[in-house]
Amino acid sequence: MSELATLARPYAAAVFKRAQETGTTEKWSGSLAFISAVLNDEEISVVVDNPKVNKERLSALMLDISQGQVDEEGANFLKLLVQNNRLTLAPTIAELFEALKAESEGYVDVEVTTAYAFSTEEQQSFTSTLEKSLSKKVHMNVTVDKSLIGGVLVRAGDRVIDGSIKGQLQQLAKRL
User: Fold this and answer.
1) Where residue 44 sits, what CATH number does that domain have?
2) What is the pLDDT of residues 23-72, one digit of tens each?
3) Which residues 6+ apart lie within 8 Å of 118 measured at CB?
4) CA 104, 106, 107 angle in degrees (round to 5)?
5) Closest to 69 in 3D by CA, of 33, 21, 39
């Protein structure tokens, strides 16, 4: 993943800069999400990974699929990725773009894994605690994983807070 992120970062930064200049961050966000979804399709990924498919045909295929979903700049970006053999980076570019957008807008996407489902009050309380801790507005996605035994596991960007019993037991085992 780190290699992909290293390769994708300049593209994500350039797209984000352009989106800010033109005031089209939401449009770019949607376009990049669409392109990522297309590339995550098994049938498309087989074609993209096939070295026998030339760049012109691949470019034409991607533009046909994306017709109506990406604007002219998005189409040019797709062509650039195809020409530079970087089309497979699109999902990572989209992910990095969203991180830049979140940073710019002052919020952070947080993945919370908990052993038991939160009640509405607990979720609101936990969200406000995270917002104070991270000093940003929090967009929280909660999943339930019974294997945690108890507690929560929080992932906010590259920061991980493991407050789960399973994690504490693993740390204890390492120390012993």
Assistant:
1) 1.10.520.20
2) 999 999 999 999 999 999 999 989 988 889 899 999 999 999 999 899 99
3) 126, 142
4) 115
5) 33
Residue where the block lists tokens 């992909």:
4
Q: Cα separation of 11 and 81, whole Å?
A: 9
Q: Provide the 3-class DSSP secondary structure of residue 163.
A: coil
My answer on whether 66 and 29 are in the same domain is yes
Per residue in 118-150, pLDDT (tens digit) is 999 999 999 999 999 888 899 899 999 988 888
Written as one letter, the residue type at 165 is: I
Q: Is 113 helix (H, G, I), strand (E, B) or coil?
A: strand
- 164: closest CA among 140, 155, 129? 155
Residue 138: Cβ-neighbour burial (10 angstroms; 0-12, 13-18, 19+):
buried
**Residue 143, φ and ψ in degrees, nearest 5:** -125, 150
Q: How many CB atoms lie within 10 A of CB 97?
A: 25
Residue range of the domain that includes 63:
2-102
Q: What is the separation, in whole angstroms, between the first and last Cα of the chain?
A: 31
